[in-house]
Design goal:
Layout: E1 12-13, H1 24-40, H2 45-48, H3 51-62, E2 73-76, H4 79-103, E3 115-119, H5 124-137, E4 140-144, H6 149-153, E5 158-164, H7 176-186, E6 189-193, E7 214-217, E8 231-235, H8 279-293, H9 300-318, H10 320-326, E9 329-330, E10 342-346, H11 353-362, E11 365-366, E12 368-370, E13 380-384, H12 392-407
Parallel strand pairs: 1-11, 3-4, 3-5, 5-6, 6-7
Antiparallel strand pairs: 2-8, 7-8, 9-10, 10-13, 12-13
The chain binds pyridoxal-5'-phosphate.
Residues 78-80, 123, 125-126, 164, 168, 193, 195-196, 218, 231 line the site of pyridoxal-5'-phosphate (PLP).
Length: 421
Amino acid sequence: LRALFDLPDGLIYLDGNSLGPLPRAAGEAVGRAVQQEWGQGLIRSWNTAGWIDRAQAVGDAIAPLVGAGPGELLVADSTSLNLHKVLWAAMSLAQARQQAQGTSGGAAQRPQRRVLLTEQVNFPTDRYMADGLAESRGWTVRAVPGDALLPALAEPDVGVLMLTHVNYRSGALHDMAVVNRAATAAGVLTVWDLAHSAGAVPVDLKADGAAADFAVGCGYKYLNGGPGAPAFVWVHPALVNQVEQPLRGWLGHAAPFAFETAYRPASGIARYVCGTPPILSLTALQAGVQTVRAADALGGMAALRRKSLSLTRTFIGACGPVARAHGLRLLTPLEDDRRGSQVSWGCPPGWDGYGVMQRLIAAGVIGDFRAGDGRGEPDLLRFGFAPLYNRHEEAWRAAQALADACSHTAGATPAARPTVT
Ligand SMILES: *Cc1c(COP(=O)(O)O)cnc(C)c1O
């Protein structure tokens, strides 16, 4: 499967959790979309080349990777925008449910469910979106440490839980079934961010008795869709028609080409479309998703997961000596069922972690650096392992290169940082 990618010779790429590498098929597919579909077909290609159905077609290709059914998952917009849509929808649904309960009596003493529960350490966009929506809708965001989520779910004022399945810093993995069961029992709607899960760890959004309610995910990480690839959105089919999303775009209308004056939402996940899809980016994403689906014939996500765990375990073990020598702290859980597909080493205070990563990159091993918060969260060196193309040999060699990069740390002047670290 590694041969599906155009990876530069001699490079060890451990940043597919941030930007997946180029699938060989992507260049040709995008070239065809440009030269033939756009160049020759022009506007006819919306029908003749299937442009109008491409977002749903790519969604259907992603769906089995996360346990969704055909027609339930759609590619659109960015992860940030999709989060906005599903959070708004989940909040609306929580309020509507509570109103219905209120009018049927019996629930008079219940406090209002206007709390959005989430985990303290999360990718900033998730928190920003939640805070913004909470502010404008009179909700409160309650952020707790990961191990306090289950007890916090039982608080009677919680209406919605927003959780990232695999933490972007530590690589820790939540047990989705356990969380969904607890949320459902507490009457809380769940919104999952699968940015670091889709294509990396098995996900079962519709697990028996433990189904999720809403989910979003990223196209350019483990799905290899290319820089800025569009994202995906899923809503449980039992809920999708119960609530609208906030961005009433014309292509999410029930009859877009009737050009009606008044908005009527499309049925199903199609209502989460906003405007015209980015066909060239969708075409690249289609090629990226095909690289993951190519593993179907070899055991699919279960086989990818076995190799991923083996790769991260190998890397953690091989880094033991350098971690002990320099005081690097493993932030990633050692237990297989709590670990996503990355390894994160916390840097000691005052240490030039950015410079170490730059030396590592110069030596041909690409990971990335994420700054700490100056309080409890350390700076970290992050290494993403993608089982489609990473090899065990690379895990060993990367650990050796990390040891070399660290041994040159003492006395070096801290490197200046560009915008993207
Ligand atoms: C990568 C990532 C995003 C990305 O959001 P964009 O809108 O694509 O920039 C969002 N949330 C999480 C948890 C991520 O890891």
